[in-house]
Amino acid sequence: MFLRLLSVFALSATAAVAATSPNIIVIMADDLGYGDLGCYGAKTIPTPNLDRLAAEGRRFTSGYCSASTCTPTRFSFLTGTYAFRQERTGIAPPSAPAIIKPGTVTVASLLKQAGYRTAVIGKWHLGLGDPAPDWNGELKPGPLEIGFDHCFLLPTTNDRVPQVYVEDHRIPNLDPKDPLWVGDKAPSPDHPTGVSHRGSLKMDWSHGHNQTIHNGISRIGFYTGGHAARFRDEDLADEWVKRSNAWIEADSKKPFFLFFASHDIHVPRIPHERFQGATPHGFRGDSVVQLDWCVGELMKTLDRLGQTENTLIVFCSDNGPVLDDGYQDGAVEKIGDHRPAGDFSGGKYSVLEGGTRTPFLVRWPGRVKPGVSDEVVCTIDLPASLTALAGVALPEGACRDSFNVLPALLGEAGARGRDHLIQQDNGVSGNYGLRVGEWKLVRQNKVGRTQAVVSRDKRPEKTPLHALYHLPSDPSERKDVSAGHPEKLQELISKLDALLAAPGSR
Q: Fewer Cβ atoms within 10 Å of its own Cβ: the N or the C terminal residue of the chain?
């Protein structure tokens, strides 16, 4: 009788959630800067759909991701825990095992517990399998072992091999007579690469990215086989939209959570032919237009299904901008007066504001108060905030750095965002930023030597171990004021040390 009552209660709870909880779509762009959208000041890149999202919702001027590279931000978004607290959360190599282990509490598992159906469609880059991906068998564990009902993925990131999709646990269209092999060394001395066959490339490389060639573009890593399963770079965005729309429409009885993980505007930037030439900034600008189209298509689907009023959309980016990240695609030469990071310094790979302060938009018609907010919110806060919306309590010890900032996301009167935020780079340098209110501490243990070009602005190669900036008067972090504020400097150093040593901050 007790078990029967529990079953009845569970079914009733699920029905109640379906009747009252909104659908949730988190759209995460890739390498998109604060200044790349019209609603954030861009003049030469048309983004009408994202501008509409901003006008109908809430635009945050202090919206952040937690890291300035992709894998750690995605880890932190899903787990609600800073990536530096777990080893091997830097940029994942092509054959990385699953970084988020089965049983880990994630935003997906918590929303699934609340009665949501859950999916991730797009770029994954959090590893698959254990101890390594079985590319010709079951790619398990993966998203389905940490709370997602369905996934359709780019397994790594598209400048890394292999160029195949993963649907749930397997690669679709894989011919067993042409097995896929992935490695970190050339399979044979005559294996074509971006070095040996440079003249055949349709997009040349500038540094790295010169190993196996696919679709006229050389990548990081080596692979052979799997030809029937391979995709064309130009078709990625269309495929994400098609798969997302089909999944949204498949079941109208339960609320859904969709993590739409765009690959735009990460390298190699090869937008579909219909977007090429859409801006004066080459393929980088054109890829922003393609990203905007994707958002518009999802919004059209919600309108068509009558779900717009019942869907919360969060738009964000996994880190700040980069111009030359390994390919000669005109991003540097055609930048013109466009400022990808807005008024901020740095970008991808950096703990300066341009590395982690990105576009952050929230729309839920009738619930989110339209306007502009300067409250500090972060992608790492989405697990605590979205599960609070769904009425699920965070388990003890889970989502250790995720704060419930839902009232700020909704624009409720007097609502505050988080009062501090740690910013990390890829996690191996010991470089950190700590924002507390108007103040920003930058700890620069190691000046990055990456060959990537993040902006036209030059900064001194030699920097002090600790620098203190007052962001309202110096948003570009040019003037170190630590000498004039020694007490504030020491206060933030002590706070950062304590937060780094603690098991969590929530």
A: N
